[in-house]
TrEMBL record, chains A, B:
<protein>
    <submittedName>
        <fullName>PLP-dependent aminotransferase family protein</fullName>
    </submittedName>
</protein>
<dbReference type="InterPro" id="IPR015421">
    <property type="entry name" value="PyrdxlP-dep_Trfase_major"/>
</dbReference>
<keyword id="KW-0663">Pyridoxal phosphate</keyword>
<dbReference type="InterPro" id="IPR015422">
    <property type="entry name" value="PyrdxlP-dep_Trfase_small"/>
</dbReference>
<dbReference type="InterPro" id="IPR004839">
    <property type="entry name" value="Aminotransferase_I/II_large"/>
</dbReference>
<dbReference type="GO" id="GO:0008483">
    <property type="term" value="F:transaminase activity"/>
</dbReference>
<dbReference type="InterPro" id="IPR015424">
    <property type="entry name" value="PyrdxlP-dep_Trfase"/>
</dbReference>
<dbReference type="InterPro" id="IPR050859">
    <property type="entry name" value="Class-I_PLP-dep_aminotransf"/>
</dbReference>
<keyword id="KW-0032">Aminotransferase</keyword>
<keyword id="KW-0808">Transferase</keyword>
<dbReference type="Pfam" id="PF00155">
    <property type="entry name" value="Aminotran_1_2"/>
</dbReference>
<feature type="domain" description="Aminotransferase class I/classII large">
    <location>
        <begin position="61"/>
        <end position="397"/>
    </location>
</feature>
């Protein structure tokens, strides 16, 4: 039969992700890819995890091989509570404030389920993290997008938009403000302390929840760490999403929702029907790892590695992009990404055809725009290619930019 | 803030599962529980899995600790393809017909997303598997329920319902027929070969997909194995859902969707926004296990164990229920469950209060009815309690039934 005739509105709306299609090219020989947002596998603590896995399967088999509760492993919850206290000074959390998810993608999807209807409004950043976009879009809400600046969301625009929604009687339709505060994906920027305060003030004024998505916060290379919005405004205002994908290993598929008991309970109910529970094995593996090793010490070499690759990329930008008028790039203080914006008139999606020929790959900005509009920007990840490939890739990208720019009469 | 004001229609509809609440009582000392549907941890191949886990994390770390593709591990897909060929003689499948999920709960949830809108109709069994109910209900469809008999779905009722829907011009709203063919949860019954053929004929007549959910099929104690509907009607008609939770270990959280390339592609797109990918670690763990060990040999002791516990329960039923007029129970040929139906007038939910006092636990039939209506039935799992506890529990249940029956004037 033709299943097409049976699909739901959602089923019909699902389209192949552009990134997936683009990344297919990245595996050809000699290609240099800045596309993926995946950690360097050499940073995974394989020896430690291998030993712990063997131990817990043998000794704790009745727990780790069995169904977990929907909430997840209480031992891991207690490790998270201790980490939040030690790293950020966040206190007064109990197991009831914590739920584990199958990667932070699931947390975003559950947030969509819990909060969004078709007539709902979600306040999001522009550029908009693709994983959140694909999760939220499954609920068909409306988006109000707030442009990002070098120090995060433009809070004046946020204020104006909220005021306008209030005046139009639409503020009740606004379900949350979604923010990636540190080393934004894709934009690489970090939300300043002042702006964090302004966002909280506005959320309080209009009584809106804030969803703070912080997968990269611990991967800071330079600059002073800033308080999480969750710490500043508390679980009665903020839902904090975290993941071990960037600090431990994505293959474990562990994300975590941290919030008020009331809202975490709702996440638990939504997760029950979605995948019942996440793997007890990978959760306990993480719990024992955090118990035995100091995560802050463990990630020091990872941070050093990413910083040095970031520095290499920034130097290569200076060298090869320095003379291209109107080009700019973000200097990230941590994380995996930088965001390069070409002069007006450039279309990084169209330019991708030339990049393909030159065997250099990036993610065009277009899929990160809420309406899939033409974009002169591109996301580049520095964490995976070796240093010399970073330099060579940036050189190839220069050639790509110049060739495209000349063809189009832009340079 | 009060998050309640921000919840979606779905968010507001989510209620705590009755089973969760009931099972809380089951952990008191001296309680005997037939409630859970979880495998006996002693059946988990812990030595084998422990060794494989340690090996693959050490040697295949760049794969198993990294993000997987949304489709899942191709090596595991090839193991599944080989198993389907060897066990059922199903051939002509490729990796493109296979997608792995985070437990089969996720497969059900994705099926809901892909097929169901609010005005959609899903044909389901009565009693209705709770996991499917909670997944499908998140899409707010209408259900048409078909009663189960000792040999599965009443196909005459199915035919009548489909005819009536067709006459009312509603057949296009029917999105699928959902069936658990083997050792039904909760009813314990198995769909006969003749009825499988009738369901396929009806699905073809009205051009409807069949979702065949078969978590228990390999756990057959007695009787002849029957062809999967998927084998009889092919991937152009049937989507087959499977899981390793009952034959290997639930803690791995691996389910599998087997279908036409077209429909599997749609599941992949839905999964991308839902949890991006399942754990590469637990998938590769299963792949290497199936590669090294013969699953049919490995589950032989499990089947023997469950059969002997089932026999113990059936004997105890004869002994302690034999003289209760009007009681009946299903004699399952495999799986984890039997379904006991008490005489008319009994309400197993109300009776639960007495069972609680007597420290014996079952799952009342009520949550398995599509409209949460009073039920004289109850689900009992025999796989977890030791033999002597099974006998003692059935004895306590007899006392419970007699006490309730007398109080209510039913006996």
């Amino acid at each position: 039969m033709d299943f097409e005739t049976k699909y739901s509105k959602l089923g019909n709306s699902l389209q192949s992700s552009l990134i997936r299609e683009l990344l297919k090219y990245a595996s050809v020989p000699n290609a240099i890819s800045f596309g993926g947002g995946v950690p360097d596998p050499e940073t995974f603590p394989r020896k430690e995890l291998s030993q712990i896995a063997s131990e817990i399967i043998e000794k704790e088999y009745a727990y780790v091989l069995q169904y977990s509760t929907t909430e997840g492993d209480p031992e891991l919850a207690n490790q998270i509570i201790a980490m939040l206290e030690r790293i950020y000074g966040i206190s007064n959390l109990s197991e009831n404030n914590i739920m584990f998810t199958t990667g932070s993608q699931e947390a975003l999807e559950l947030a969509g389920k819990i909060f969004l209807d078709e007539e709902s409004i979600a306040i999001v950043e522009d550029p908009f993290y693709l994983g959140a976009a694909s999760a939220f879009k499954m609920r068909f809400p409306k988006f109000v997008t707030i442009p990002l600046e070098d120090d995060g969301m433009n809070v004046d625009v946020l204020e104006k938009e909220l005021k306008s929604l209030d005046e139009k009687g639409l503020i009740k339709k606004v379900k949350f403000i979604y923010v990636i505060p540190n080393f934004h994906n894709p934009a690489g920027v970090t939300l300043s302390y002042e702006k964090r305060k302004r966002i909280i003030e506005l959320a309080e004024r209009y009584d809106l929840p804030i969803i703070e998505d912080d997968p990269y916060g611990l991967l800071r290379f330079e600059g002073e760490p800033l308080d999480p919005i969750f710490k500043m405004a508390g679980p009665e205002r903020v839902i904090l999403l975290n993941t071990f994908s960037k600090i431990l290993a994505p293959g474990l598929r562990i994300g975590v929702v941290i919030g008020s008991e009331q809202v975490v309970r709702k996440f638990v109910l939504a997760k029950q029907g979605t995948d019942l529970c996440s793997s007890a094995l990978t959760q306990r593996l993480a719990a024992r790892y955090f118990e035995r090793y100091d995560i802050l010490q463990q990630i020091t070499p990872t941070i050093k590695l990413y910083k040095s690759k970031k520095d290499t990329m920034m130097q290569a930008f200076e060298e090869y992009f320095g003379d291209i008028k109107g080009i700019k790039w973000v200097k990230p203080e941590g994380g995996l990404f930088t965001w390069v914006t070409l002069p007006e008139g450039f279309d990084t999606m169209e330019m991708f055809e030339i990049a393909k020929q030159k065997l250099v790959f990036y993610i065009p900005g277009q899929p990160f725009t809420p309406d899939n509009k033409v974009s002169p920007s591109m996301r580049m990840s520095f964490c995976l290619p070796p240093h010399e490939k970073i330099v060579e890739g940036v050189k190839r990208l220069r050639d790509t930019i110049l060739e495209y720019g000349k063809t189009k009469g832009l340079i």
